[in-house]
Design a protein that fits this description.
single chain, 172 residues, mainly alpha
Amino acid sequence: DKLEGKQLAPETRETGIVAVGSLVGKLCQQKLCGLQVVERGVETILRGLRGAKEEPEVVIHLLALGNAMLPETIPTLLDHAEDGPTAVTAAATSALQRFPVPDISSKVKRAMRRIFHQKRKSYDKTCRLAAAEILLHNQPSPMDVINILLATSEMETETATFLLLKVQNSLR
């Protein structure tokens, strides 16, 4: 019904969008991205994201994109990760965490460094931790590890301990 443009109850629509993202992701994993229904699903999610006026609507569409895990949507996720309000930034960084290592480019890493080190604006702790995790789980440079370790001295004990454990795990 959603793909046909029918109006649905908000809860049904939200669940449907997230499910469409999951379905698109599963079909693409099976090398069926070229199917017309998959392309319509992706376009429905992206159109909904572009037309979303309220923060919860944006978050739902970002969750759907995260479920789809399509490399071509990474620039869209990056835009929302860096420039959105807290919930939007959290949803976008969370979606980026799901992508495999080959899809995490130097552009993604630069954006995650800006988020972690709060270069453009102040970010929520959860977003900063997600950015650090993306850096640490995707072939971190020695400088990334050093900078994350240095940053822990300015963090709350729990957050610093969490990051130190992440660094230890990535070094292993």
